Amino acid sequence: MTTAQILVTAGGVALCIFIAWFFWFAPKGQTRAATGAGGAQEVAVTVKGGYTPDVIVVKAGQPVRLHFTRRESSACSEKVLFPDFNQSVLLPAGQEVTLEFTPEKPGEYGFQCQMGMLRGKLIVE
Ligand SMILES: [Cu+2]
Predict the structure, then answer these.
(1) What is the C-alpha to C-alpha distance for residues 115 and 80, in angstroms, rounded to an integer?
(2) Ligand 1 mean position to 49 CA, how many Å?
(3) Which of 3, 27, 55, 114 has the smallest number of CB atoms closer than 10 Å to its CB?
(4) pTM
């Protein structure tokens, strides 16, 4: 192989790794929940190829209200699960679905689609 071919191959491999990282591992933004009028911590989450934001910071002992809006029709994201809280909800495309629960203990809790391809994290402080 010539030097140019090696460079092109290496560049291609690096690009693939970057794309994989970008879609699966790059954080899509961290959000601290704002406390609404009813005392609940409200966060709007957009579902499209992932969860935006995918890191949500809330306070323990106060109800959390997550408003999911799914902006895609891929079957992958049609359900979101919070295994640690025994919560799961179906997300019809284009509709806002609200999930409410109260995290009692501080910690980090994952949430995900049915197959675990899309992931996010709820940080309870
Ligand atoms: Cu999935």
Answers:
(1) 10
(2) 9
(3) 3
(4) 0.76
